[in-house]
Amino acid sequence: MGQVAWKALFLSLFDYKTEKYVIAKNKKVGILYRVVQLSILAYLVGWVFVVKKGYQDTDTSLQSSVITKLKGVAFTNTSELGERLWDVADYVIPPQGENVFFVMTNLIVTPNQRQATCPESASIPDALCHKDGDCPAGQAVVAGNGVKTGHCLKDRDSVRGTCEILAWCPVEKRSKPKKPLLASAENFTVYIKNSIRFPKFKFSKMNVLATNESYLKSCRYSTEHPYCPIFLLGNIVRWAGSDFQEMASEGGVIGIQIEWNCDLDKAPSECNPHYSFSRLDNKFAENSVSSGYNFRFAKYYRNAEGVDYRTLIKAYGIRFDVMVNGKGAFFCDLVLLYLIKKSNFYRGKKYEEVK
Fold it and tell me: In a 10 Å sphere around its CB, with 0-12 CB exposed, 13-18 middle and 19+ buried, how is residue 270 labelled?
């Protein structure tokens, strides 16, 4: 670039420029221009302000607590346990109600286990053996119940046997009842108390109305009774699109969603919970290798001779997850702060400046 060009560029920095407007006397162009203007205005007023309520301030930091309590009894008569009555202390795990709770609907019981040596289950591939060398002492059985002792136990005239193990003996039973033992859990009820708070607006509410106790003892949640927090377990599973008796055999997971989307410009009575229910585990259980939901726990005791025993229970059942979310929206003083003559005065009262 030459010296003259650099000088011209430098001098242009001190030029004053002003805009020039050209008015086109063309009706088509003018109509198109106004249509674009009106479209933008309609979008701002109709969509941003009316539909999306852009004039409102929102709070999505919802604070929530959930307390659950179950009620119901069931009766069973099995060879392992005999006649037995089950109440909430037996079939609800954990016993204290929170936003996740488990209701046992089926079980496999292995009673009177003690630590000793016994044959491993023949259904476990790693326990099968032909000679003692197949059962190295001290080696844990893969997916099994104990530790190998070094002996291969065979029946008479049998070529193949199973490894002897040190474990809780006898080993766990494998046969599961064809029908759920606690099938009557379909008629159990759960009380779900949900308290929420929008800290930004200092607004709190519960899903339980201040009413007499007789109402809570007799009501059941439905669309006609949205503020009754008592739910039938069978209804929850059905609303989630599943059959309770089918699900009770193998177990599963149900989600209970509580939505609080509140327009706080309206009366507090207009801020209401909305429930939805869904199945969270694999619905097509028969096509899954590890279908349903189950876990094991044991109850321990000691006999008169001081020997420790336990009853092992493999529990099948339904886990319920209560999930709460939502948002609160409140008028953000748009008119006072920006659209009137005294807006500076109101802004000065609303916002305090600290130097």
Answer: exposed
Q: Give the global pTM.
A: 0.76
Residues whose CB falls within 8 Å of the CB of residue 271, separated by 6 or more in sequence, listed in order: 203, 205, 260, 262, 263, 264, 328
Q: Are strands 203-206 and 189-198 parallel, antiparallel or unpaired?
A: antiparallel
Neighbours of 20 (CB within 10 A): 5
Kindly report the length of the chain. 355
Integer Cα distance of 93 and 107 in angstroms: 14
Q: Is 225 strand, coil or helix? A: strand
Of 96-100, 220-224, 351-355, minimum mean pLDDT range: 351-355
Q: How far apart are CA 321 and CA 190, in angstroms?
A: 12
Query: Are 313 and 109 within 8 A, CB to CB?
Result: yes
Coil, strand or helix: which one is 257?
A: strand
pLDDT tens digits along 215-256 = 888 899 988 888 899 999 999 999 999 999 999 999 999 999
Place of tokens 């997916």: 143
Alpha carbon distance 10, 4 (integer Å):
10
The mean pLDDT value for 19-34 works out to 73
Count, in order, helices (H) and strands (E) of the chain.
8, 16
Tell the burial category of 239 from Cβ atoms under 10 Å away from its Cβ (0-12, 13-18, 19+): middle
- C-alpha distances in Å from residue 333, one per residue of 120, 264, 330: 74, 13, 9
* DSSP-assigned letter for residue 277: E
For residue 103, which of 220, 221, 207, 237 has the smallest C-alpha distance?
A: 237
Per-residue pLDDT at 283: 66
